[in-house]
Amino acid sequence: MENKIKIVETSNIFSKIIGAIVVAAIVLIVLKLVNGVQGKRAFSAELGGDSAEFEESKDVKVRFSDVAGSEEAKENMKDIIEFLKEPEKFESFGAKTPKGVILYGPPGTGKTLLAKALAGETGAEFIPTSGSYFVEKYVGVGASRVRKLFNKARKKSPAIIFIDEIDAIGGKRGDGQGTSEDAKTLNQLLVEMDGFKDKENIIVVAATNRLDMLDDALLRAGRFDRHVMVGLPDLNARFEILKVHAKNKPLSEEVDLFQVAKQTVYMSGADLSNIMNEASIYAIKENCSEIMLSHIDKAMNKIIAGDEKKDRSNISDMEKKITAYHEAGHALIAKLLNKESVPKVSIIPTTKGAAGYTIINPNEKMFQTKKEILNRVSGLLGGRASEEIIFGKENITGGAANDLQRATRMVVTLITKYGMSEKLGLVCFDDREISLENQIILEETKRVLDKIYSTTLNYILKNKDKLNLIAEKLLENEIIDEQDLDALIAS
């Protein structure tokens, strides 16, 4: 009897185990099916479903009159406007318009704005996207999206396709940087551009900060035929850009935008727009009815160095003194050696992490000689040199880190791009070939930097009296302007 009971209990246990296994298996199968359907839907979307739709706009408000400081670039694009408006004029001469236009130059110079203005002037459909949109982990997704983009443009003709940051998909092939998927996407872009017919009235405009990094096949005739540089604005261009961004802003009569343009050397259009916007915000905060020169000055300081810290209680007197001599060194070299404008020197720490800052307006020139470049490197090393002279080599600080980084970059460019190295000679390397891991480049960079630093030390030692005057004035006032600086150096 006992044995029979045990057999029955064991049988029940086995039945329950088998039942649980069956239920678990069914649940797993159902989950797998659901996930499979969802995965297919997601993958389908990635290949060109609803999530891969491209935005477009026929009514672009931007015109070339809204784009200041890019006259050469605008002139380069005028015949494209005529082609899209009057294609028959070109057909009668057998002329072919460029299929693609590459806008290249530093960030913030208005490349996207120019592309929008081109669409606005022609009334063409504007279809914007970016190179990174085509970079995907799934096989074939990038190429599929390229096909979809061009199919949409053909339906919307006349159209302007704008691809921002095209280097994300158009980088040089065979350099070991890209993947096979990137190559497929680029190939599809090349195929689509080759497949254009003149009567389709489609122009591809692309933007990049690094023209030298793009694949040669992308830049050849029949694809991106026209290369338009959109560089940093010169003095007159900055003046025009500032006038555009000052439009509809209540400026005080004391504000001279031409003088502001003089103080913003090497700033981009985006920087200038930001200055005028920040100046407006400062005026609003102070409940002013107009934007004063002081507001623009604060805005420039914010863009360059960050906001000044209000709480400075944790800064010791010794730290203030080190900062004063460091900034005095920069200002001294800039003024005496480089003959540059120095509108402001400050030892007030900022929100960008600087213990102090020296605003320098470099001389605006098309070309710089080797001597001028080396002098600018000397200016960057002036802060560290002053610390060493006053406090000794064992008491130098890490405050020169950013200066050293910029100085190193300038020297590397000088010896690897400009052919100005005594040891390397007349060479100009591709960016991918330049590395401080290269022993020859590293040794030559160090040799040049050491030589300039030695010269800088000697120069500051000869003018130590002026260095002391500047530093003492900074410790007294925290900020000195160019007029005070000139007076101190002249005394």
From TrEMBL:
GO biological process: protein catabolic process; proteolysis
Cofactor(s) in the UniProt record: Zn(2+)
Top-level taxon: Bacteria
Domain AAA+ ATPase: 97-234
GO CC, any one term: plasma membrane
PROSITE patterns: AAA
Gene Ontology molecular function, alphabetical: ATP binding; ATP hydrolysis activity; ATP-dependent peptidase activity; metal ion binding; metalloendopeptidase activity
Cell compartment(s), UniProt: Membrane
Membrane spanning residue stretches: 13-34
Keyword annotations of the record: ATP-binding, Cell membrane, Hydrolase, Membrane, Metal-binding, Metalloprotease, Nucleotide-binding, Protease, Transmembrane, Transmembrane helix, Zinc
InterPro entries per UniProt: AAA+_ATPase, AAA_lid_3, ATPase_AAA_core, ATPase_AAA_CS, Peptidase_M41
Family in the record: In the C-terminal section; belongs to the peptidase M41 family. Belongs to the AAA ATPase family.
Protein name, as recorded: AAA family ATPase
Organism: Clostridium thailandense
Source species taxonomy: Bacteria, Bacillati, Bacillota, Clostridia, Eubacteriales
